[in-house]
Amino acid sequence: MENMQSSIIQMHIWPVIALTFLVALNIVVIVMQKDDIKLKKYLRIQVIAWITLTSMVVFTGAAIMAWLHIPFRIKIIAMIAASIAIVFLELRRHLAMKKARPQQECFKKFRHKALRYYIFELLWLLMVGGLAPQLP
Q1: What is the pTM (predicted TM-score) of this model?
Q2: If you ran DSSP here, which 8-state letter would residue 35 be given?
Q3: At how many degrees (to 10) do helices 36-68 and 105-131 cross?
Q4: By CB distance 3.0 to 4.6 Å, which of 13, 16, 39, 101 could disulfide with 33?
Q5: Neighbours of 36 (CB within 10 A)
Q6: How far is CA 58 from the centre of its chain?
Q7: What gap in Å lies between CA 93 and CA 39, rounded to an integer?
Q8: What residue spans define the domains of the chain?
Q9: Closest alpha carbon to 53 in 4, 97, 20
């Protein structure tokens, strides 16, 4: 029983770690990639990985909560709020990317917006990952 709890919690933690690395990689790519067309193509392709990882985090979190009969506490509410905020930020970034046209001034503004959204996503992930063990 204890082994099962440990493995299901690890199944939740690894996608969170992978999502954190993906967001950090996206920040690096936005800063390093100078070609607007390649950047837009990369950001469109990586959305599939982002959606997959986010879905895994939400699904495994719900499964853990149901299987272990965890009541709603501050920690759980913070994790739910973080996942909603991260999804909202990603949707805003994606809509801004759809409007931006490469090789134009609006794409420069998109780079700054996307960088800001990814930094906020990274802060949400690190905040919840760092604070969740200390919360009741």
Answers
A1: 0.85
A2: -
A3: 20
A4: 39
A5: 17
A6: 11
A7: 13
A8: 2-131
A9: 20
